[in-house]
């Protein structure tokens, strides 16, 4: 198949991305095999942990083959492309590839899955099923980040819900059924609009003589970049189709109206996943009620699927509407930032997992703010807008690392104390100094202390968003103060003061737990001290993506 | 010379290395080895910093790695400008679209002076701590933290851009949090630590906004006068003339936001409330972080970005007002405190106010000069108070409290009413403390006289209201320091029958125990001791408290104006009128303090003479104008209600909607039940069974079986496929 210059396959011809997506699935097959030969559960756990090294290794090899600086015809070059015609009738291709927007998230997924496996070490019921679901979830998330045809993109998107649902429902806490149901239905319902939209888009581009579900081609059309075989941009194509259907006679001849409808359809689907206010209330329930491994993968990786979707679909497909509604999106982001922060503060005597969940809402609010800031109208140049996107990518990785660590430690704390409530704890630092130290680092990473990754993300988000949306950016700093307060009070409740709570002493972090946290937090430190390698991954692609917003659209 | 210029980056690295080694290697189990490792590396950093200062003072600079001599820069009348830096080294740190953000070091006279001051005081404080913390089981951790702190302070002093400055600034905030809460078993320490972190963070987020504001306007945040630097004159001119939000020019807006950081970090009104509580930390920490260095970082921030402030004088007016107000306000509170460290803490607030006010009236050199002299004499006073407290804690009456309540014992040992007559018991401490006292009170020729006089002179010339306010504050400074000095060192020792601190967090059952004890005090059990390592540190700092004024004497000729010429700024001339007045003010304050307290406190339980004359005033001052209570009743309560309100919105509004929609969908789902059963044969799980165990009303909505929802997914996909096929087949 002839590929345009902005798509390049692997130089060595190896289908790296297919291998990456299939590798966790092969792990599931191995679990089945182990079950057949009746290996004991401990061995299976160790085996699965070792096997999560395979996707990690593959992700590393892909990273080594990835050239972050490659740009061609107005976009970051999509690399290691695999493209095979699949369902010819509706022009669906099996189309995988990575670019600067997906590469950091592929790495994050591969890094966090082993942590989730270790976090399930103390699962005693239906161990094999639990581990298989984790691997299934990993495969779905990896597939989502590398799929570039809407058909596969959407299947991975929806399918990732299934293992997450069963993990929450099967291994969660008291309210797990409610939480799993809410999580599932929320996301499902939110995706309906996007699904319908893509059917309309397909019909529109088909009428324009270019039937495709190719997200890259559609994104290029959306941005008005040349695509071989078709003229014009997505907005006009969509408008022409709707005009032909007679819709414009009923609703009016405003092209921006229809791209706005498209934008909101996409936005709602992804905003739910990203837990943008007011689509966030599933999150504290799902994170809190799920088992530790599910909390880790949901918070660390799955919520980023929403932000990635906005970068991949929302900004390129409907740039005019994104620019027009950027202040509205920023307003939702800021409300989420504030709501998440105060929600967390409300939990300082309550449930530790719920508290961490609310801080996630707060942090994802910054990501949303960055996306709005990159798109908003204004005289800000590429440097500011690309900084916002870079900041959002770093924030996603940083939040994945620090929140994953916090959930892991909350699980470890629960094993020791038998409780999730923070009230009644106290003074545990004396008996568990290393535990307190590691939790402290995770917490400061989470609240954005300079020197750790979270700060880099937040700084560049603020730097980029201020250039176009100073008012909302200024309001968003309330979240920085209040989240810090909530997290520090959480730490104080658990570890400080006299040891008068129940229990009065707990076991310190075991070596296994310490060495699970050490790489995660070291990674956070490295990114915080020298973010250039991570930021360089997405910088070129981000710079191209935001170029269109330096003009006035709509 | 080239060696010191090329290796300046080692200065923060050495203490950072000490901190990392102590934290990560088994040396942390060897308390003394950790302590001496940190102190040794700190001394090495001091040597490098002094070498660097000598090189910079000699006018040497590195240009592309080659040693060159800079032309002398004397500062002109008119616009404020920094001289050419001596060393700038940068590396690419983060790509930002079509530009790159660089990080590095930027060394000029101001940075070199800061580095020398910080390394010297930090070395003294390390040395002092070896004696002071010797008995503490977490001594290694203590040294790890103060070494990390010093590394951050040094990095901040030599940062080449505002982002690196801010990063180091925040790491200092972290260390401050960790060290205030060092005695983490004490609830009061844990509370004070959180209060300090959050209060300063309020200022920090304003600073962060100032940085991104500047970044957006200037396209960069690197220091420097050249094109691309934030002090590039055409840029400053544009910032000062273009209008941003609220009718302020960009320059004024940016400057005010940056100043927000100063108000937090340097504990200026209205964010001053954290600093007195920060005295919960070990006393060397109070000396290092909460007197000499970190709190002065806020002043250095304004000094570092001064061209932006100077570009539009609107912000400087606010700076002058806040500084002068804090100087006077904090001095009045210090009059009515009994805790030796809290008096010093309010004094620090007041002196920081002097520096801030100096910047506000354009006295850049005076502010930086006072920053440096104050660091020496205030560190000295704090360490002296540490020596006193250390000795007090060994006394029998305190020891008896210590048995059941360590915290109450420490607080009791810090109460100046329980001291008295220590002049003969702690002679080294007395003489060094006296040097610090005279420096702070502003008596010629001690260091504080010269720097404070220079501030008053600038205020006298540029803003008479500020001059009057600062003069009043200087008068009160002399009064409260005389009161403290007299009560601590003169009269009779009153500690056999101390005023016992009532610990609100005391474990139940022991609260009143201390009162019964002190009647049986043992008069013969007194033994007073001064640790030689502690004395060594006091003597070094005392020598600076006596002589540091010589760094910038307002006299022409050799040795005069040394700092002003190091910093490349215009030198201040001695004004005999202002100097004489300020000396008179100080002497009057000392006289009043002595007169008021010469016969006060025959016993610890007596009433303060000021309280006897003006009980209402004393109560207000003693309660610190009740600002903490005001904040708790307003901001504190507002925050708590907002937290409740947001949760309520989530549960009562949004979740209701969601659950309602879910119920509606679920009703539709029932229609599909037959398909469900036949397709998946999912067994007898009833819908009703799901409601069991659900306590909360909002949670009543329950699920059926997972299979039900899975079927939605697949029927959705199926419908999709049918739709596509239909469309295609058309």
In short:
In chain A, 71% of the residues lie in helices and 4% in strands.
Q: How would you describe this protein?
A:
The complex is a heterodimer of chains A (554) and B (730). Chain A is built from 22 helices and five strands. Chain B contains 31 helices and four strands. In chain B, helix 12 runs antiparallel to helix 16. About 7% of the residues of chain B have low confidence. Classes of the chains: A mainly alpha (554), B mainly alpha (730). At the A-B interface, helix 7, helix 8, helix 15, helix 17 and helix 19 of A face strand 3, helix 6, helix 7, helix 29 and helix 31 of B.
Give the terminus-to-terminus CA distance of chain B: 85 Å
Taking all residues together, what is the mean pLDDT of chain B? Answer: 85
Return Rg of chain B in Å.
31 Å
Largest sheet data of chain A: 3 strands, mixed
Question: Mind telling me the C-alpha Rg of chain A?
Answer: 23 Å
| Structural shape of chain B | globular
Q: Given the helix and strand composition of chain A, which structural class is it?
A: mainly alpha
For the secondary structure, the number of strands of chain B is 4
Structural class label of chain B: mainly alpha
Q: DSSP helix count of chain A?
A: 22
Q: Strand count, sense and closure of the main sheet of chain B?
A: 2 strands, antiparallel
Give the strand tally of chain A.
5
Oligomer: heterodimer
Strand content of chain B: under 5%
The helix fraction of chain B, in percent, is 55-70%
